[in-house]
Specification:
- The chain has 290 residues and is an alpha/beta fold.
- It has one domain: Alpha-Beta Barrel (TIM Barrel), CATH 3.20.20.
- 41% of the residues lie in helices and 17% in strands.
- The chain has eleven helices and eight strands.
- It has an eight-stranded parallel barrel, surrounded by seven helices.
- β6, α8 (187-200) and β7 form a beta-alpha-beta unit.
Length: 290
């Protein structure tokens, strides 16, 4: 995507919004909510994950949810998160899934916490996942977790993030999202990283997965966008966060924050406003669970 393209790729992330909720959200309600989101017209819907039900009990019904969804009349692509090769193979077996996402942490501590793998083992998994995705017509999305820093004392600087981005690119990854797993990114850092990386590999789709407090959302979006990022992960009302991170579940960028930025800057989104309003209203029922 050209640097001067105004196109905004919006990835709605109900999976990330729901995964840390302890009380089980009924499968039928999840399906109803996801079906409502599919009518909105987002580019991608991060809808579920193929991980151990012990690790993420809330998403133990992802397969059942997927089988209940209707993709008729929508161009929205489905994305599922995985944590190991078995998850990759499970996700690859479902034709409706277009993207398979893997959180690759450059913090050794967090990689082990999140996927029970070292960074070296995780890199091997990326290579295996890339092979499986190519064989099944899927696109691997790698989230460069802890890409903006970490609270665990592991070595980190912007050069390390850039170095890992290069290594993943060399292994064939073509969709790479810099992930602020614990809400430590700043606009200056986002601008520094994206302005360096995006021109270096214009054939790579660069994304941003920010966790930020409400007062910081607009500045984070603006910094990444003006530095060339065009793919943003968001969640209605800013719900969500990683249950394995020590961030008190700092929320996702709210979908409405991104849409506000788009409106202010005359960036077209192509979303169905009526369907969005309906999904927004339904989200209150979904997130009444806690």
């Amino acid at each position: 995507m050209p640097l001067n393209s105004p196109v905004m790729t919006i990835v709605e992330c109900p999976r990330d919004a729901m995964q840390g909720i302890h009380e089980f959200i009924p499968t039928a309600l999840k399906v109803k909510y996801l079906q409502a989101l599919l009518r909105v017209g987002f580019d991608t819907l991060d809808f579920g994950s193929f991980v151990s039900p012990t690790a993420i009990p809330q998403l133990r019904d992802t397969r059942e949810v997927l089988e209940s969804l209707s993709l008729a009349g929508t161009n929205t692509k489905l994305l599922a998160i995985v944590a190991n090769l078995r998850g990759v193979e499970d996700a690859c077996s479902h034709a409706p899934i277009a993207y398979i996402g893997y959180p690759f942490s450059i913090s050794e501590t967090f990689q082990v916490r999140n996927t029970k793998k070292t960074i070296a083992e995780s890199l091997v998994l990326v290579e295996e996942a890339q092979q499986r995705c190519q064989a099944h017509g899927k696109e691997l999305v790698v989230y460069l977790s802890m890409g903006f820093g970490n609270p665990y004392g592991d070595p980190w600087d912007a050069a390390l993030t850039a170095s890992w981005a290069e290594k993943l690119y060399a292994r064939g990854v073509r969709t790479l999202a810099l992930a602020d797993t614990v809400g430590v990114a700043t606009p200056a850092l986002a601008e520094e990283l994206f302005s360096h990386l995006v021109p270096r590999h214009p054939d790579l789709t660069w994304g941003a997965h920010f966790h930020a407090l409400p007062e910081h959302r607009h500045a984070m979006i603006a910094a990444a966008y003006h530095a060339g990022c065009r793919r943003f992960d968001v969640a209605l009302k800013g719900y969500g966060g990683c249950p394995f991170a020590s961030d008190g579940l700092t929320g996702n960028i709210a979908t409405e924050s991104l849409l506000g930025f788009c409106a202010e800057n005359d960036i077209p989104t192509g979303l169905n406003e009526q369907a969005l309003a309906e999904a927004f209203a339904l989200s209150a029922e979904v997130f009444a669970y806690h």
